[in-house]
Write a structure and sequence with these properties.
mainly alpha; about 290 residues; transmembrane
Length: about 290
């Protein structure tokens, strides 16, 4: 599948307007999350609740972004690269290779691998909750908000370089909320969060829509934080597979936030960034 057609629609934004739209985008994220969390008070099984939360969260976020674009800014969703779902094959492959490669590299460090004993019903429940909760809902909504709406607002006012970096820094900062961290762990998280945000941004620029980055984001979450394979400094009895890292180096373990902030994960992000740069460069050469 080819690259999505880029929008030619231009907006006239001053700094205060652009900043307000960025704040509004973050507000949409929190409002959608709060409404979606209503599903968790229902007396239903965990996987059904995760499915309902996913539907509500994604639906509300999509609807609010669409409403804001059309009624406040007077542009279409497509102008924020929120198009009909379409994924480039190269990024579909990357979506699998990135978390698998990082996981394999992390498991090359000293540690203890355990396949936890659980029945088929429990395994199915973990997979479904990971798919709808960590995978689809977070991957789709965060990409629509950060790499779709917010990135477009920053791009219109300050250009593409700022658009790739600023939402990425915000993305990293928001992950600090509700986590007890020291300064060292915060620095590790900001480096990793900004790096992964830049990675997603370049995927969007290369593919022309948020859907390739949403797939990469969702698959990463599904494998790395969905309790399919938990790689941490402690054995996780709730995961299907657990790898207890024996290393005491926070550079390898990622500190309080976990292996997503590790040097191995950051190297993975930057390998993908280089791939995106090469693809964008080649496209630029072909257009000459």
């Amino acid at each position: 599948m080819g690259k999505q057609k880029e929008t030619n629609v231009r907006m006239t934004l001053n700094s205060s307007n652009a900043l307000w739209h960025v704040i509004s985008g973050i507000g949409i994220l929190f409002v959608a999350s709060a409404i979606g969390s209503i599903a968790y008070i229902l007396p239903l099984s965990e996987n059904i609740v995760a499915f309902l939360n996913c539907i509500i969260y994604v639906g509300i976020a999509y609807g609010l972004i669409k409403l804001y674009c059309e009624k406040v800014i007077h542009i279409k969703l497509e102008d924020c690269r929120i198009t009909k779902p379409k994924v480039s094959p190269v990024w579909a492959l990357c979506a699998l290779l990135l978390p698998v490669g990082v996981s394999c590299a992390l498991m090359c460090t000293p540690g203890i691998f355990v396949a936890n004993s659980m029945n088929a019903s429990k395994i199915a429940n973990i997979i479904l909750v990971a798919l709808f909760g960590a995978g689809i809902s977070a991957g789709v909504v965060e990409e629509m908000v950060f790499r779709g709406f917010i990135m477009r607002m920053v791009e219109e006012r300050w250009g593409r370089v700022a658009a790739a970096i600023v939402p990425s820094v915000i993305f990293g900062l928001l992950h600090i909320i509700n986590i007890d961290m020291n300064l060292r762990d915060i620095i590790l998280l900001l480096i990793a969060g900004t790096s992964v945000g830049i990675m997603f941004s370049l995927i969007v620029y290369q593919s022309g829509s948020v859907w390739s980055s949403a797939l990469v984001h969702g698959m990463w979450n599904f494998i790395m934080i969905g309790d399919i394979l938990d790689i941490n400094i402690k054995h996780n009895t709730d995961a299907i597979f657990s790898y207890e890292m024996l290393s005491k180096s926070v550079i390898l373990t990622g500190g309080s936030f976990g292996v997503e902030s590790s040097i191995i994960a950051v190297i993975g992000y930057w390998i993908v960034i280089m791939v995106a740069f090469l693809l964008l460069h080649n496209e630029g050469e072909q257009c000459k």
